[in-house]
């Protein structure tokens, strides 16, 4: 059984109701901006779905006291705060740090993990500075950092989540990181509807049913059985996001 730890399944590109393959045990649905907070939240009412709320760094300017209150008011329904983080591609970095800091604080106060988006060297450096010795529980979603970043993450006990981009021909270094990271620290995700597996040649829309492509690639890189990848990553997800407490699983 698989758990897709990061899928924006509410996206209008994905038909609803979306039928999950039988081997998908759970899907975690994070919001990323103010327009989809409510949409993401709706998913925790569905069987096999879990929700996290947060504002992605691209939309950091939208973060407000109202949104903070919205997240806190629904905190009992959430398995994480996310998708939150830092991204140097956008020119609102100061605002990102502020919004990220406040959302980290919510995670800390309510003892929830974070579904973390980091892109760019300075994003990783700033993140490690902001969270030093604070014992956050972290899923580093769609990991894109260096081996050095991966080592730092592992030193902190963080989980590293890999998506279908590990199947892309050019991502040789990323596959080296997959090889390096112990299976006990790995999560699987699709980041649907984007991040299609290479085999689709950029045609179509990604869904959680493609999660096996990530597992197959990890099994191939690590020379281990795919069942082992399934079992361990599923247990990792259950443990990080505390999914056992819910009747959904
Ligand atoms: Zn995402």
In short:
With 249 residues, this protein is an alpha/beta fold.
Helix content: 25-40%
**Which geometry do the CA atoms define?**
globular
Report the total helices. Answer: 8
Q: What fraction of residues sit in β-strands? A: 15-25%
The largest beta-sheet arranges its strands as: 1-2-3-4-5-6-7-8
Structural class: alpha/beta
- CATH superfamily label: Metal-dependent hydrolases
Which small molecules are bound? Answer: zinc ion
CATH topology: TIM Barrel
Question: Which helices and strands, and how do they pair?
Answer:
Elements lengths: L1 E3 L19 E7 L6 H6 L6 E5 L11 H9 L4 E10 L5 H17 L4 E6 L1 H10 L7 E3 L6 H9 L3 E4 L9 H9 L5 E3 L22 H12 L3 H15 L9
Helix pairs in contact: 7-8
Bound molecules: zinc ion.
